[in-house]
Amino acid sequence: MRNIEQIFINGEFITPHGTERFDLYNPATAQITGQVRLADHVDAERAIAAAKAAFPAWSQTSKQERIAALKRMHAAVAARHDDLLEAVIEEYGAPASRSAWMARYPADVIAQVIEALEAFPFTTQAGAATVDMIPLGVAGLITPWNSDAGFICGKLAAALAAGCTAVIKPSEMSALQTLIVTQALSEAGLPPGVFNIVTGRGDTVGETIARHPDVAKISFTGSTNTGKAILRNAAETFKRVTLELGGKSPTLILADADLSQAVPLAIAAGFMNSGQACVAGTRILVPLARKAECEAALAQAVAAVKSGDPRDRSTEIGPMVSEKQWQRVQRYIRLGIDEGARLLVGGEGRPEGTQDGWFVRPTLFTDVSNQMAIAREEIFGPVLSIMTFRDEAEAIALANDTEYGLSALVLGRDVEHARRVAQHITAGRVLVNTLTHEPKAPFGGFKHSGVGREMGDWGIRAFMEPKSILG
Ligand code: NAD
Protein backbone atom coordinates (compact mmCIF):
# COMPACT_ATOMS: atom_id res chain seq x y z
CA MET A 1 0.00 0.00 0.00
CA ARG A 2 1.28 3.43 -0.93
CA ASN A 3 0.22 6.51 1.00
CA ILE A 4 0.75 9.89 -0.61
CA GLU A 5 0.63 12.43 2.18
CA GLN A 6 2.02 15.69 0.85
CA ILE A 7 1.31 18.54 -1.50
CA PHE A 8 3.76 21.13 -2.84
CA ILE A 9 3.35 24.80 -1.89
CA ASN A 10 5.88 27.64 -2.02
CA GLY A 11 8.81 25.37 -2.89
CA GLU A 12 8.15 22.84 -0.12
CA PHE A 13 6.47 19.49 0.33
CA ILE A 14 3.97 20.01 3.13
CA THR A 15 1.18 18.10 4.84
CA PRO A 16 -2.15 19.48 3.63
CA HIS A 17 -4.70 21.13 5.87
CA GLY A 18 -7.24 18.80 4.25
CA THR A 19 -7.61 15.45 5.96
CA GLU A 20 -9.79 13.43 3.57
CA ARG A 21 -8.17 10.30 2.16
CA PHE A 22 -9.01 9.10 -1.34
CA ASP A 23 -8.49 5.49 -2.44
CA LEU A 24 -6.18 4.75 -5.35
CA TYR A 25 -6.83 1.67 -7.49
CA ASN A 26 -5.08 -0.53 -9.98
CA PRO A 27 -7.81 -0.84 -12.64
CA ALA A 28 -6.30 -4.09 -13.98
CA THR A 29 -7.04 -5.82 -10.66
CA ALA A 30 -9.73 -3.54 -9.20
CA GLN A 31 -7.64 -3.61 -6.00
CA ILE A 32 -6.84 -0.62 -3.81
CA THR A 33 -3.13 0.20 -4.10
CA GLY A 34 -2.96 3.09 -1.68
CA GLN A 35 -4.45 6.39 -0.58
CA VAL A 36 -3.82 10.04 -1.22
CA ARG A 37 -4.48 12.71 1.40
CA LEU A 38 -6.41 15.46 -0.34
CA ALA A 39 -5.88 19.18 -0.14
CA ASP A 40 -8.88 21.37 0.72
CA HIS A 41 -9.88 24.98 0.05
CA VAL A 42 -7.46 26.28 2.72
CA ASP A 43 -4.58 24.59 0.92
CA ALA A 44 -5.80 25.95 -2.40
CA GLU A 45 -5.85 29.48 -0.96
CA ARG A 46 -2.31 29.07 0.40
CA ALA A 47 -1.11 27.87 -2.97
CA ILE A 48 -2.74 30.82 -4.72
CA ALA A 49 -1.14 33.24 -2.23
CA ALA A 50 2.30 31.68 -2.87
CA ALA A 51 1.85 31.95 -6.64
CA LYS A 52 0.68 35.56 -6.28
CA ALA A 53 3.75 36.46 -4.22
CA ALA A 54 6.05 34.82 -6.77
CA PHE A 55 4.47 36.53 -9.80
CA PRO A 56 6.14 39.99 -9.75
CA ALA A 57 9.67 38.53 -9.90
CA TRP A 58 8.88 35.67 -12.29
CA SER A 59 7.01 37.91 -14.72
CA GLN A 60 10.15 40.06 -14.99
CA THR A 61 12.51 37.19 -15.85
CA SER A 62 14.11 37.28 -19.28
CA LYS A 63 13.38 34.81 -22.06
CA GLN A 64 16.83 33.27 -21.45
CA GLU A 65 16.14 32.77 -17.74
CA ARG A 66 12.83 31.07 -18.53
CA ILE A 67 14.44 28.84 -21.14
CA ALA A 68 17.12 27.83 -18.64
CA ALA A 69 14.46 26.96 -16.03
CA LEU A 70 12.43 24.96 -18.57
CA LYS A 71 15.56 23.07 -19.60
CA ARG A 72 16.17 22.07 -15.99
CA MET A 73 12.52 20.98 -15.72
CA HIS A 74 12.89 18.96 -18.92
CA ALA A 75 16.00 17.15 -17.67
CA ALA A 76 14.42 16.41 -14.29
CA VAL A 77 11.19 15.01 -15.80
CA ALA A 78 13.05 13.01 -18.48
CA ALA A 79 15.10 11.37 -15.72
CA ARG A 80 11.88 9.94 -14.22
CA HIS A 81 10.79 8.21 -17.43
CA ASP A 82 10.86 4.69 -15.98
CA ASP A 83 8.89 5.69 -12.89
CA LEU A 84 6.28 7.41 -15.04
CA LEU A 85 5.99 4.32 -17.23
CA GLU A 86 5.27 2.17 -14.19
CA ALA A 87 2.83 4.76 -12.84
CA VAL A 88 0.68 5.07 -15.97
CA ILE A 89 0.37 1.29 -16.17
CA GLU A 90 -0.47 0.86 -12.50
CA GLU A 91 -2.63 3.94 -12.07
CA TYR A 92 -4.94 3.88 -15.06
CA GLY A 93 -4.01 0.71 -16.90
CA ALA A 94 -2.31 2.37 -19.89
CA PRO A 95 -1.95 -0.45 -22.42
CA ALA A 96 1.37 -1.40 -23.99
CA SER A 97 0.28 0.39 -27.17
CA ARG A 98 0.09 3.68 -25.25
CA SER A 99 2.22 3.57 -22.09
CA ALA A 100 5.60 4.23 -23.75
CA TRP A 101 4.24 7.44 -25.29
CA MET A 102 2.61 8.45 -21.99
CA ALA A 103 5.93 8.11 -20.15
CA ARG A 104 7.87 10.07 -22.78
CA TYR A 105 5.36 12.84 -23.43
CA PRO A 106 5.70 14.85 -20.17
CA ALA A 107 9.36 15.60 -20.94
CA ASP A 108 8.74 15.95 -24.69
CA VAL A 109 6.04 18.57 -24.22
CA ILE A 110 8.40 20.72 -22.10
CA ALA A 111 10.96 20.52 -24.92
CA GLN A 112 8.23 21.59 -27.37
CA VAL A 113 7.42 24.63 -25.24
CA ILE A 114 11.14 25.55 -25.08
CA GLU A 115 11.24 25.53 -28.88
CA ALA A 116 8.12 27.68 -29.10
CA LEU A 117 9.48 30.11 -26.49
CA GLU A 118 12.78 30.50 -28.35
CA ALA A 119 10.85 31.83 -31.35
CA PHE A 120 8.20 33.73 -29.39
CA PRO A 121 7.95 37.46 -30.18
CA PHE A 122 7.21 39.27 -26.90
CA THR A 123 7.13 42.64 -28.67
CA THR A 124 5.80 43.40 -32.14
CA GLN A 125 4.90 46.50 -34.12
CA ALA A 126 1.30 47.21 -35.25
CA GLY A 127 1.32 50.36 -37.36
CA ALA A 128 2.47 53.16 -35.05
CA ALA A 129 1.96 51.05 -31.92
CA THR A 130 4.39 48.82 -30.08
CA VAL A 131 2.54 45.75 -28.85
CA ASP A 132 3.91 44.01 -25.77
CA MET A 133 2.65 40.61 -24.70
CA ILE A 134 1.97 40.72 -20.94
CA PRO A 135 1.62 37.65 -18.68
CA LEU A 136 -1.83 37.46 -17.10
CA GLY A 137 -0.84 36.64 -13.51
CA VAL A 138 -1.56 33.51 -11.47
CA ALA A 139 -2.73 30.63 -13.66
CA GLY A 140 -4.91 27.78 -12.35
CA LEU A 141 -4.10 24.57 -14.22
CA ILE A 142 -6.62 21.73 -13.84
CA THR A 143 -5.94 18.31 -15.38
CA PRO A 144 -7.87 15.08 -16.08
CA TRP A 145 -6.70 11.56 -15.24
CA ASN A 146 -6.28 10.34 -18.80
CA SER A 147 -2.95 12.12 -19.31
CA ASP A 148 -2.26 13.74 -15.97
CA ALA A 149 1.54 13.99 -16.07
CA GLY A 150 1.52 15.19 -19.67
CA PHE A 151 -1.05 17.92 -19.03
CA ILE A 152 0.70 19.10 -15.85
CA CYS A 153 3.98 19.49 -17.74
CA GLY A 154 2.48 20.99 -20.90
CA LYS A 155 0.29 23.55 -19.17
CA LEU A 156 2.94 24.49 -16.59
CA ALA A 157 5.69 24.91 -19.19
CA ALA A 158 3.48 27.19 -21.32
CA ALA A 159 2.36 29.24 -18.29
CA LEU A 160 5.95 29.74 -17.08
CA ALA A 161 7.16 30.54 -20.61
CA ALA A 162 4.59 33.34 -20.72
CA GLY A 163 5.73 34.71 -17.33
CA CYS A 164 2.77 33.47 -15.28
CA THR A 165 3.06 31.59 -12.00
CA ALA A 166 0.84 28.58 -11.37
CA VAL A 167 -1.38 26.59 -9.06
CA ILE A 168 -1.90 23.11 -10.41
CA LYS A 169 -4.86 20.94 -9.44
CA PRO A 170 -4.18 17.51 -10.88
CA SER A 171 -6.76 14.78 -11.09
CA GLU A 172 -7.30 13.20 -7.68
CA MET A 173 -7.18 9.81 -9.46
CA SER A 174 -3.61 10.34 -10.69
CA ALA A 175 -1.79 10.96 -7.42
CA LEU A 176 1.11 8.67 -8.27
CA GLN A 177 1.91 10.36 -11.59
CA THR A 178 1.52 13.71 -9.85
CA LEU A 179 3.94 12.71 -7.07
CA ILE A 180 6.62 11.67 -9.58
CA VAL A 181 6.26 14.86 -11.62
CA THR A 182 6.22 17.03 -8.49
CA GLN A 183 9.40 15.42 -7.18
CA ALA A 184 11.08 15.97 -10.54
CA LEU A 185 9.94 19.58 -10.86
CA SER A 186 10.97 20.35 -7.29
CA GLU A 187 14.54 19.42 -8.27
CA ALA A 188 14.55 21.90 -11.15
CA GLY A 189 15.42 24.76 -8.79
CA LEU A 190 12.62 27.20 -9.62
CA PRO A 191 11.96 30.05 -7.17
CA PRO A 192 9.48 29.14 -4.39
CA GLY A 193 5.85 29.74 -5.28
CA VAL A 194 6.39 29.86 -9.04
CA PHE A 195 4.50 26.58 -9.24
CA ASN A 196 2.37 24.88 -6.58
CA ILE A 197 0.69 21.49 -6.82
CA VAL A 198 -2.42 20.75 -4.76
CA THR A 199 -4.16 17.45 -5.35
CA GLY A 200 -7.74 17.68 -4.16
CA ARG A 201 -11.31 17.30 -5.26
CA GLY A 202 -12.76 19.29 -8.12
CA ASP A 203 -15.65 20.60 -6.06
CA THR A 204 -13.32 21.98 -3.35
CA VAL A 205 -9.84 22.79 -4.65
CA GLY A 206 -10.98 23.10 -8.28
CA GLU A 207 -13.87 25.42 -7.39
CA THR A 208 -11.66 27.56 -5.14
CA ILE A 209 -9.22 28.08 -8.00
CA ALA A 210 -12.00 28.78 -10.50
CA ARG A 211 -13.59 31.43 -8.27
CA HIS A 212 -10.59 33.06 -6.59
CA PRO A 213 -10.06 36.75 -7.42
CA ASP A 214 -6.27 36.36 -7.39
CA VAL A 215 -6.35 33.78 -10.20
CA ALA A 216 -6.27 35.51 -13.58
CA LYS A 217 -6.36 32.51 -15.91
CA ILE A 218 -7.73 28.97 -15.94
CA SER A 219 -6.36 26.32 -18.25
CA PHE A 220 -8.55 23.25 -17.91
CA THR A 221 -8.64 19.89 -19.62
CA GLY A 222 -11.52 17.59 -18.77
CA SER A 223 -15.17 16.92 -19.43
CA THR A 224 -17.56 19.34 -21.10
CA ASN A 225 -19.82 19.50 -18.02
CA THR A 226 -16.97 20.48 -15.72
CA GLY A 227 -15.84 22.97 -18.36
CA LYS A 228 -19.25 24.67 -18.21
CA ALA A 229 -19.08 24.91 -14.41
CA ILE A 230 -15.60 26.44 -14.61
CA LEU A 231 -16.72 28.96 -17.24
CA ARG A 232 -19.62 30.05 -15.01
CA ASN A 233 -17.44 30.26 -11.89
CA ALA A 234 -14.70 32.14 -13.71
CA ALA A 235 -17.12 34.73 -15.11
CA GLU A 236 -17.51 36.59 -11.83
CA THR A 237 -13.85 37.67 -11.86
CA PHE A 238 -13.41 37.80 -15.67
CA LYS A 239 -10.78 35.09 -15.73
CA ARG A 240 -9.34 34.26 -19.10
CA VAL A 241 -10.07 30.59 -19.81
CA THR A 242 -8.73 27.86 -22.01
CA LEU A 243 -10.98 24.81 -21.96
CA GLU A 244 -10.00 21.55 -23.64
CA LEU A 245 -13.12 19.42 -23.39
CA GLY A 246 -14.75 16.33 -24.83
CA GLY A 247 -15.33 15.06 -28.33
CA LYS A 248 -17.33 12.73 -30.55
CA SER A 249 -14.96 12.79 -33.46
CA PRO A 250 -15.87 11.55 -36.94
CA THR A 251 -13.73 9.34 -39.14
CA LEU A 252 -14.72 9.68 -42.81
CA ILE A 253 -13.84 6.76 -45.04
CA LEU A 254 -14.27 8.29 -48.50
CA ALA A 255 -15.56 6.41 -51.55
CA ASP A 256 -12.08 5.97 -53.04
CA ALA A 257 -10.44 4.77 -49.79
CA ASP A 258 -8.11 1.79 -49.82
CA LEU A 259 -9.54 -0.18 -46.90
CA SER A 260 -6.28 -2.01 -46.22
CA GLN A 261 -4.85 1.39 -45.22
CA ALA A 262 -7.98 3.15 -43.98
CA VAL A 263 -9.26 0.51 -41.57
CA PRO A 264 -6.14 0.24 -39.36
CA LEU A 265 -6.08 4.04 -39.04
CA ALA A 266 -9.81 4.19 -38.26
CA ILE A 267 -9.45 1.55 -35.55
CA ALA A 268 -6.34 3.15 -34.05
CA ALA A 269 -8.14 6.53 -33.96
CA GLY A 270 -11.17 5.01 -32.27
CA PHE A 271 -9.33 2.91 -29.71
CA MET A 272 -6.62 5.41 -28.82
CA ASN A 273 -5.81 5.28 -25.10
CA SER A 274 -8.28 2.37 -24.70
CA GLY A 275 -11.00 4.62 -26.13
CA GLN A 276 -10.43 7.01 -23.22
CA ALA A 277 -9.19 9.85 -25.42
CA CYS A 278 -10.86 13.20 -26.05
CA VAL A 279 -9.91 12.94 -29.74
CA ALA A 280 -11.09 9.33 -30.20
CA GLY A 281 -12.69 8.83 -33.63
CA THR A 282 -15.81 7.06 -32.44
CA ARG A 283 -18.17 7.78 -35.36
CA ILE A 284 -17.05 5.98 -38.50
CA LEU A 285 -18.79 7.30 -41.61
CA VAL A 286 -18.67 4.97 -44.62
CA PRO A 287 -20.12 5.22 -48.17
CA LEU A 288 -23.47 3.44 -48.45
CA ALA A 289 -22.26 1.77 -51.67
CA ARG A 290 -19.38 0.15 -49.77
CA LYS A 291 -21.26 -0.57 -46.54
CA ALA A 292 -20.93 -4.38 -46.48
CA GLU A 293 -17.27 -4.26 -47.41
CA CYS A 294 -16.49 -1.63 -44.74
CA GLU A 295 -18.48 -3.48 -42.09
CA ALA A 296 -16.62 -6.72 -42.81
CA ALA A 297 -13.17 -5.08 -42.78
CA LEU A 298 -13.87 -3.02 -39.64
CA ALA A 299 -15.42 -6.00 -37.83
CA GLN A 300 -12.45 -8.18 -38.64
CA ALA A 301 -10.07 -5.50 -37.37
CA VAL A 302 -12.00 -4.89 -34.14
CA ALA A 303 -12.25 -8.63 -33.44
CA ALA A 304 -8.45 -8.84 -33.65
CA VAL A 305 -7.89 -6.10 -31.04
CA LYS A 306 -6.65 -7.48 -27.76
CA SER A 307 -8.25 -6.05 -24.64
CA GLY A 308 -6.68 -7.11 -21.36
CA ASP A 309 -3.56 -7.00 -19.22
CA PRO A 310 -1.84 -3.65 -19.83
CA ARG A 311 1.55 -5.27 -19.16
CA ASP A 312 1.14 -7.70 -22.06
CA ARG A 313 3.02 -6.29 -25.09
CA SER A 314 0.21 -7.28 -27.46
CA THR A 315 -2.52 -5.47 -25.51
CA GLU A 316 -4.12 -2.56 -27.36
CA ILE A 317 -6.95 -1.85 -24.94
CA GLY A 318 -6.36 -1.78 -21.21
CA PRO A 319 -8.96 -1.62 -18.44
CA MET A 320 -11.26 1.35 -17.95
CA VAL A 321 -9.90 3.72 -15.31
CA SER A 322 -12.58 3.06 -12.68
CA GLU A 323 -15.60 0.94 -11.91
CA LYS A 324 -17.77 3.98 -12.66
CA GLN A 325 -16.23 4.26 -16.11
CA TRP A 326 -16.67 0.50 -16.65
CA GLN A 327 -20.37 0.78 -15.74
CA ARG A 328 -20.73 3.76 -18.06
CA VAL A 329 -19.38 1.81 -21.02
CA GLN A 330 -21.68 -1.14 -20.22
CA ARG A 331 -24.64 1.23 -20.04
CA TYR A 332 -23.90 2.74 -23.44
CA ILE A 333 -23.51 -0.69 -25.04
CA ARG A 334 -26.94 -1.67 -23.66
CA LEU A 335 -28.36 1.65 -24.81
CA GLY A 336 -27.01 1.11 -28.34
CA ILE A 337 -28.75 -2.25 -28.54
CA ASP A 338 -31.98 -0.81 -27.10
CA GLU A 339 -31.88 2.07 -29.59
CA GLY A 340 -31.78 -0.43 -32.46
CA ALA A 341 -28.12 -0.34 -33.48
CA ARG A 342 -26.74 -3.70 -34.68
CA LEU A 343 -23.85 -5.16 -32.73
CA LEU A 344 -21.10 -6.42 -35.05
CA VAL A 345 -18.37 -7.17 -32.50
CA GLY A 346 -18.09 -7.10 -28.70
CA GLY A 347 -20.94 -6.23 -26.37
CA GLU A 348 -21.52 -6.13 -22.65
CA GLY A 349 -19.31 -7.87 -20.10
CA ARG A 350 -15.61 -8.63 -19.85
CA PRO A 351 -13.43 -10.02 -22.63
CA GLU A 352 -12.55 -13.70 -22.41
CA GLY A 353 -9.52 -14.48 -20.31
CA THR A 354 -9.81 -11.45 -18.04
CA GLN A 355 -11.00 -11.47 -14.49
CA ASP A 356 -11.46 -8.83 -11.86
CA GLY A 357 -10.13 -5.73 -13.60
CA TRP A 358 -12.34 -3.15 -15.32
CA PHE A 359 -11.83 -4.71 -18.74
CA VAL A 360 -14.29 -4.13 -21.56
CA ARG A 361 -14.92 -5.78 -24.92
CA PRO A 362 -13.89 -3.72 -27.95
CA THR A 363 -17.28 -3.02 -29.47
CA LEU A 364 -18.47 -2.11 -32.95
CA PHE A 365 -22.02 -1.12 -33.84
CA THR A 366 -23.48 -0.62 -37.29
CA ASP A 367 -26.83 0.71 -38.55
CA VAL A 368 -26.33 3.61 -36.18
CA SER A 369 -28.27 6.79 -36.80
CA ASN A 370 -26.62 10.07 -35.88
CA GLN A 371 -29.54 10.81 -33.52
CA MET A 372 -28.82 7.82 -31.25
CA ALA A 373 -27.17 8.51 -27.88
CA ILE A 374 -24.20 6.31 -28.83
CA ALA A 375 -23.57 8.64 -31.79
CA ARG A 376 -24.07 11.89 -29.91
CA GLU A 377 -22.61 11.40 -26.43
CA GLU A 378 -19.00 10.89 -25.42
CA ILE A 379 -18.76 7.32 -24.10
CA PHE A 380 -15.03 7.43 -23.26
CA GLY A 381 -14.49 3.75 -23.94
CA PRO A 382 -13.78 1.47 -26.93
CA VAL A 383 -17.24 1.61 -28.51
CA LEU A 384 -17.40 2.57 -32.19
CA SER A 385 -20.40 3.31 -34.41
CA ILE A 386 -20.63 2.85 -38.19
CA MET A 387 -22.94 5.21 -40.07
CA THR A 388 -23.47 5.48 -43.81
CA PHE A 389 -23.61 8.41 -46.23
CA ARG A 390 -24.92 8.54 -49.78
CA ASP A 391 -22.59 11.27 -51.01
CA GLU A 392 -19.88 13.54 -49.72
CA ALA A 393 -22.25 16.38 -48.93
CA GLU A 394 -24.09 14.04 -46.59
CA ALA A 395 -20.79 12.79 -45.13
CA ILE A 396 -19.75 16.35 -44.29
CA ALA A 397 -23.19 17.18 -42.88
CA LEU A 398 -23.10 14.07 -40.66
CA ALA A 399 -19.54 14.79 -39.54
CA ASN A 400 -20.57 18.30 -38.50
CA ASP A 401 -23.91 17.30 -36.96
CA THR A 402 -22.53 17.09 -33.43
CA GLU A 403 -22.21 19.36 -30.41
CA TYR A 404 -18.48 18.72 -30.45
CA GLY A 405 -15.69 19.86 -32.75
CA LEU A 406 -12.35 18.66 -31.47
CA SER A 407 -10.88 16.34 -34.09
CA ALA A 408 -11.69 14.46 -37.30
CA LEU A 409 -9.98 11.95 -39.57
CA VAL A 410 -10.47 11.84 -43.35
CA LEU A 411 -9.31 8.74 -45.23
CA GLY A 412 -9.12 8.60 -49.02
CA ARG A 413 -6.81 7.57 -51.83
CA ASP A 414 -6.83 10.98 -53.56
CA VAL A 415 -5.08 13.11 -50.94
CA GLU A 416 -5.92 16.47 -52.55
CA HIS A 417 -9.57 15.52 -52.64
CA ALA A 418 -9.47 14.31 -49.01
CA ARG A 419 -7.90 17.63 -48.00
CA ARG A 420 -10.74 19.51 -49.71
CA VAL A 421 -13.23 17.46 -47.67
CA ALA A 422 -11.20 18.26 -44.54
CA GLN A 423 -11.70 21.99 -45.19
CA HIS A 424 -15.46 21.58 -44.69
CA ILE A 425 -15.25 19.90 -41.30
CA THR A 426 -15.73 21.99 -38.18
CA ALA A 427 -13.03 20.66 -35.87
CA GLY A 428 -9.92 22.08 -34.27
CA ARG A 429 -7.80 19.43 -35.91
CA VAL A 430 -8.53 17.43 -39.05
CA LEU A 431 -6.12 14.62 -39.89
CA VAL A 432 -5.88 13.35 -43.48
CA ASN A 433 -4.59 9.77 -43.85
CA THR A 434 -2.49 10.10 -40.71
CA LEU A 435 -2.65 10.06 -36.92
CA THR A 436 0.55 12.03 -36.47
CA HIS A 437 0.57 14.74 -33.83
CA GLU A 438 2.05 18.16 -34.74
CA PRO A 439 3.12 19.93 -31.54
CA LYS A 440 3.70 23.23 -33.35
CA ALA A 441 0.06 23.38 -34.49
CA PRO A 442 -2.74 24.76 -32.29
CA PHE A 443 -4.83 22.18 -30.48
CA GLY A 444 -8.36 22.70 -29.19
CA GLY A 445 -11.99 22.50 -30.08
CA PHE A 446 -14.91 24.24 -31.71
CA LYS A 447 -18.37 24.32 -30.10
CA HIS A 448 -18.73 22.24 -26.90
CA SER A 449 -15.21 20.86 -27.30
CA GLY A 450 -13.80 23.95 -25.71
CA VAL A 451 -12.54 27.50 -25.76
CA GLY A 452 -9.11 28.60 -26.96
CA ARG A 453 -6.08 26.66 -28.14
CA GLU A 454 -2.99 25.04 -26.65
CA MET A 455 0.37 23.99 -28.10
CA GLY A 456 3.07 25.94 -29.93
CA ASP A 457 2.93 29.70 -30.13
CA TRP A 458 -0.83 29.63 -29.38
CA GLY A 459 -0.20 27.76 -26.12
CA ILE A 460 2.09 30.49 -24.76
CA ARG A 461 -0.14 33.30 -26.05
CA ALA A 462 -3.06 31.80 -24.10
CA PHE A 463 -1.37 32.92 -20.85
CA MET A 464 -0.87 36.50 -22.05
CA GLU A 465 -2.67 39.59 -23.22
CA PRO A 466 -1.47 42.24 -25.66
CA LYS A 467 -0.82 45.80 -24.56
CA SER A 468 -0.39 48.56 -27.15
CA ILE A 469 1.86 51.53 -26.52
CA LEU A 470 1.54 54.58 -28.79
CA GLY A 471 3.29 57.89 -29.15
P1 NAD B 1 -13.49 15.74 -15.26
O1 NAD B 1 -14.11 16.92 -15.90
O2 NAD B 1 -14.32 14.87 -14.40
O3 NAD B 1 -12.26 16.19 -14.34
C1 NAD B 1 -11.19 16.94 -14.84
C2 NAD B 1 -10.56 17.72 -13.70
O4 NAD B 1 -11.48 18.72 -13.26
C3 NAD B 1 -10.22 16.90 -12.48
O5 NAD B 1 -9.00 17.35 -11.94
C4 NAD B 1 -11.38 17.20 -11.54
O6 NAD B 1 -11.06 17.01 -10.18
C5 NAD B 1 -11.64 18.66 -11.85
N1 NAD B 1 -12.96 19.16 -11.48
C6 NAD B 1 -14.11 18.47 -11.33
N2 NAD B 1 -15.12 19.31 -11.00
C7 NAD B 1 -14.59 20.56 -10.95
C8 NAD B 1 -15.13 21.85 -10.68
N3 NAD B 1 -16.42 22.03 -10.38
N4 NAD B 1 -14.30 22.93 -10.73
C9 NAD B 1 -13.00 22.77 -11.06
N5 NAD B 1 -12.44 21.57 -11.30
C10 NAD B 1 -13.21 20.48 -11.27
O7 NAD B 1 -12.81 14.90 -16.44
P2 NAD B 1 -12.03 13.50 -16.36
O8 NAD B 1 -13.01 12.41 -16.17
O9 NAD B 1 -10.90 13.60 -15.41
O10 NAD B 1 -11.41 13.44 -17.83
C11 NAD B 1 -12.12 12.94 -18.92
C12 NAD B 1 -12.69 14.06 -19.75
O11 NAD B 1 -11.63 14.92 -20.16
C13 NAD B 1 -13.33 13.59 -21.04
O12 NAD B 1 -14.55 14.27 -21.25
C14 NAD B 1 -12.32 13.96 -22.12
O13 NAD B 1 -12.87 14.13 -23.39
C15 NAD B 1 -11.73 15.20 -21.56
N6 NAD B 1 -10.39 15.42 -22.14
C16 NAD B 1 -10.22 16.43 -23.04
C17 NAD B 1 -8.98 16.62 -23.63
C18 NAD B 1 -8.75 17.73 -24.63
O14 NAD B 1 -7.59 18.09 -24.85
N7 NAD B 1 -9.76 18.29 -25.24
C19 NAD B 1 -7.92 15.79 -23.31
C20 NAD B 1 -8.13 14.78 -22.37
C21 NAD B 1 -9.38 14.61 -21.79
Structure, described:
- This protein folds into two domains: 2-245 and 447-469, Aldehyde Dehydrogenase, Chain A, domain 1 (3-Layer(aba) Sandwich), CATH 3.40.605; 250-432, Aldehyde Dehydrogenase, Chain A, domain 2, CATH 3.40.309.10.
- The chain has 15 helices and 21 strands.
- It has helices at residues 41-59, 63-78, 81-92, 96-118, 148-162, 175-186, 202-211, 224-235, 259-270, 291-303, 323-339, 373-376, 392-400, 415-423, 456-461; strands at 2-4, 7-9, 12-14, 21-26, 31-37, 123-126, 129-135, 138-142, 165-169, 195-197, 217-221, 240-244, 249-253, 281-287, 342-345, 363-366, 383-389, 407-411, 429-432, 450-451, 464-469.
- The strands form five sheets. Strands 15-16-17-14-13-18-19 form a seven-stranded mixed beta sheet, sandwiched between helices. A six-stranded mixed beta sheet has the order 10-9-8-11-12-20, with helices on both faces.
- Helix 14 (415-423) links the parallel strand 18 (407-411) and strand 19 (429-432).
- The longest helix is centred in the first third of the chain and has 23 residues, at 96-118.
- The chain is globular.
- The chain starts with a strand and ends with a strand.
- The relative contact order is 0.14.
- The mean pLDDT is 98.
- Bound molecules: nicotinamide-adenine-dinucleotide.
- Nicotinamide-adenine-dinucleotide (NAD) binds next to helix 7 and helix 8.
